[in-house]
Amino acid sequence: MKARIKSSGKIVEVEDLYDDGTALVKGRYFKVSELDFFEDFEAIDWEQRRYELAKSAMQGYCIALGVNDDSETYNDIAIGSIRVADALIKELKKGD
User: Fold this and answer.
1) Exposed/middle/buried for residue 21 (C-beta within 10 Å: 0-12, 13-18, 19+)
2) What are 72's strand-pairing partners?
3) How far is CA 59 from the centre of its chain?
4) Residue 42: per-residue pLDDT
5) pLDDT digits (tens, 9 = 90+) for 2-19
6) Residues with Cβ < 8 Å from 11, sequence gap 6 or more?
7) Cα–Cα distance, 17 to 50 (Å, whole number)
8) 63 near 83, Cβ under 8 Å?
9) Is the whole model's pTM more than 0.85, yes or no?
10) What is the pLDDT of residues 31-60, one digit of tens each?
11) In Å, how far are 11, 18, 50, 72, 75 from 8, measured between CA atoms?
């Protein structure tokens, strides 16, 4: 089962849960209250998340670069924005 460590935001695989309110994660024990559990981690709509991240990255690029009406510049920004979104999603899915 997947969970997020509240203090770091890292997504981890919970190896075991115990009656004393602790959880085993990579050989380390956490209080259950230190974790946010996902019912179904894979239920995340990664395509929607990709769109949202690329959109945000594109807005940042456009503001930072003061873009003119050059369509090649827009294409380059679009490609860069998608790469940023894909890299972030890859890191989010790692959970390490």
Assistant:
1) exposed
2) none
3) 19
4) 54
5) 888 899 888 888 999 998
6) 2, 3, 4, 41, 92, 94, 95
7) 32
8) no
9) no
10) 999 998 876 555 577 888 899 999 999 989
11) 9, 22, 22, 40, 36
In the chain, the amino acid numbered 33 is S
With beta carbons less than 8 A apart as the criterion, state whether 67 and 78 touch: no
CB atoms within 10 A of CB 43: 7
Predicted pLDDT at 73 = 80
Distance CA 37, CA 53 (A): 23
CB 14 within 8 A of CB 24: yes
The closest of 49, 33, 41 to 89, measured between CA atoms, is 49
DSSP labels, 38-96 = -S-GGGS-HHHHHHHHHHHHHHHHHHHHT--S-HHHHHHHHHHHHHHHHHHHHHHHH--
